[in-house]
Amino acid sequence: MTYDPDPGFRRRQALEDTHRSRNGRARRISPLNRALRDAPSPAPRIKTYHISAMLDDGTIVDLNHRANVDMQLENIMARFGRGTMFATPRGQVAVEDLRPGDLVRTRDCGEQPVRWIGSCHFSRLESGAPDIPRAIRIKGDALGEQRPIQDLVVSVRFRMLTNHPSCAALFGSPETLAPAIDLLDDSTIVMVRPSPDLTFYNLMFDQHQIIMANGLETESYHPGTYGVATMTEELQDELRLILPHLKGNLDNFGPLARPILRGFEAEVLRAG
C-alpha cells in the first residue's frame, strides 16, 4: 500500500505550474518554460584589469582589479597597443616599459611624471563574438610624414590632435582632439581584430596632457567635460577603485588640454 505523505502537495504543485492567461483561464506551464523559469541566473563574466599608480607620497601601488565585463572598463584602461613608443628623457620608451613616476614629454608642460597606468586585453568575453573589430591600425605616415613614425595600433576610443583650419571658427580653439574612428579611410586608418594576447595600456598624469604616441600627438586619459556626470553610480564607484591616486575625488581630473570633438563634429571637419 502506498500513500502520499502530504495529500495537498500534488494539488499545490499543479497550481504552481499554471498561470492565468489574459482571458482569466488557467493554463498549464510547459516543462520547458518551467525549466527556463527556474533556471539559475548566469554567473557574471569577470575580467581582470591591471593598475599601477603613484600616490601623492611617491608610493607605487600595483593591483589587479576584477570587475564584471558589462562595466566595460576597457573604455578607460585600453588606449595604446603594446609596443607604442613615447618620448622620454631616456629616448623612445615602449608603453609596456613605463612605470608610474617615469617622465614623459608632453606638448604643453614639458616632461611630466606618469601618475597612473592601466592595462588589459581584449577578448571574446566582451562581445561573445571574436570577429568584431576592437582596434584601429593607423599606418605609418597616414596623416603626414612621420605621423605616425610607424604603424600604431590603438583602441576605438583613441583620439588624435588636429589643427584643421576650421577648428578655431567652429570650436573656438586652433586645435582639437578628434576620434580616430571617425577618420577611417579603409586604406591607411583601418579597423582590425587584435590578437587576444595583445595588451592595451592607458596613461594618466596630474593634468590632461598632449603626448606623442609613435610620433602622433594624442592625449592622456581624461573622462571628458561631462564624462563622470554621465556615468552610473556603479561605474563611478569602479572609477574610484581603479584610480587610487585620486583618493576618491572624481573632480580631480582638471580641465581638458584641448576640446574633445564628438563624432558628428569630426565629420564636419573632414567635410570642410
Structure at a glance:
By secondary structure, the protein is an alpha+beta fold. It has helices at 9-16, 31-38, 74-77, 167-171, 233-242, 263-271; strands at 18-20, 26-28, 46-54, 60-68, 80-81, 85-88, 91-94, 103-106, 110-113, 116-121, 135-138, 152-155, 159-162, 176-179, 189-192, 199-204, 210-213, 216-219.
Report on the structure:
The protein is an alpha+beta fold. 16% of the residues lie in helices and 30% in strands. It has helices at residues 9-16, 31-38, 74-77, 167-171, 233-242, 263-271, and strands at 18-20, 26-28, 46-54, 60-68, 80-81, 85-88, 91-94, 103-106, 110-113, 116-121, 135-138, 152-155, 159-162, 176-179, 189-192, 199-204, 210-213, 216-219. It has a five-stranded antiparallel beta sheet with strand order 4-3-10-16-5. A hairpin with a 5-residue loop joins strand 3 and strand 4 (60-68). The N and C termini lie far apart (91 Å). Residues 1-7 and 9-22 have low confidence and may be disordered.
Any key phrases for this structure?
3-stranded antiparallel β-sheet; alpha+beta; 272 residues
